[in-house]
Amino acid sequence: MGRRGGRGRGGGGRSGGGRGGGGGGRRERRTWAHDGRPGDLDGDRHGGEEGHHADGIVLRGHTDEDGTPRVLDLAMWDFAQCDPRRCTGRKLIRMRLCRELRTRSAFNGIVLSPNATACVSPRDRDIVLENGIAVVDCSWAELDKVPFHKMRAYHNRLLPYLVAANPVNYGRPLKLSCVEAFAACCWIVGLKEEAEELLGKFKWGHAFFSLNNELLELYAACDNAADMVETQNRYIQRLQEEAQSRKTMTYNAFTQLGQEEAARADEADDDDNDDDAGDGDAEKDVEGGDVGEEGQEQGEEDQEQGEEGEALEKEEDAEGRELAGEVATKLSI
User: Fold this and answer.
1) Residues at the annotated binding site for S-adenosyl-L-methionine?
2) Lowest mean pLDDT among 40-54, 70-84, 93-107, 303-317
């Protein structure tokens, strides 16, 4: 009976020789397309020791020294403050386009954080190309529960005024989802195709560009963070002036309508007075007076409706202006 084969020094394991095989089997080091170059599996380049590395969005026209296509590193700190079924960041992770960071993980790229004081700008392009973008997925209402002090983020940035297009917060300023934040940052630093590819993963994604096309182009044309803030504030001021102009026009239209109704009633009253005589004239005068009063009442009612419409519009715009004001103040440089 032959001697039982021993387990070789180099054998065993998932990438060595067969179970119980002889020595000499060399372990293969697995690499991911996301890592860009061999040796980055430990996460040092991308700032984390997570076991899940994403495949990522390929950067057009950018390759590493060995010719490997460079991939945009997208990452996320998730503090479980939103519905995971609706979280676009979680969906990107499932699609292997984004990776999750632990609380104490370091990230050397641009970090889109509500705790930042500087605004992202086209000058951040090189940082994005080299080290990527990360988002802090949290709720504005629960910022006090986020351990920002534990997160090793070296390039914190705020996004400027933009309007959300996601189904949860459609039309609300600054209430962007994770994928909208990633795409906005990409667009601002000049990675427009990458931004479109990201939002193309969502059926509503095109609406974000439709709502914000003018703003995104203005931001992309800026030079630095100061220009970004100035551009944002000019745009917000224009919105406020246009809103005020619409309210004034609405009020004047309702007032004019009421006056026209009253004038038509007065004309009808005059015609009745000319055509009739005696007691009939007196009766018609009363009727004509009633019509005039009805016209005035209709005008007053229309004016009240206009005022109610103004109040409703003011209420709807209040939150957006308040948030915009907060961001404008916070982004002051």
Assistant:
1) 88, 136, 159
2) 40-54
Q: Which residues are annotated as a binding site?
A: 88, 136, 159
pTM > 0.85: yes or no: no
Q: What is the pLDDT of residue 17?
A: 40
For the chain, what are the domain ranges? 57-234
Q: What is the pLDDT of residues 191-202, one digit of tens each?
A: 999 999 999 999
Categorize the per-residue pLDDT at 246 as very low, low, confident or very high, splitting at 50, 70 and 90. Answer: confident
Higher pLDDT, 270 or 44: 270
Written in H, E and C, the secondary structure of the chain is CCCCCCCCCCCCCCCCCCCCCCCCCCCCCCCCHHHCCCCCCCCCCCCCCCCCCCCCEEEEEEECCCCCEEEECEEEEECCCCCCCCCHHHHHHHCCCCEEECCCCEECCEEECCCCCCECCHHHHHHHHHHCEEEEECCHHHHHHCCHHHCEECCEEECCCCECCCCCCCCCECCCCHHHHHHHHHHHCCCHHHHHHHHCCCCCHHHHHHHHHHHHHHHHCCCCHHHHHHHHHHHHHHHHHHHHHHHHHHHHHHHHHHHHHHHHHHHHHHHHHHHCCHHHHHHHHHHHHHHHHHHHHHHHHHHHHHHHHHHHHHHHHHHHHHHHHHHHHHCCC
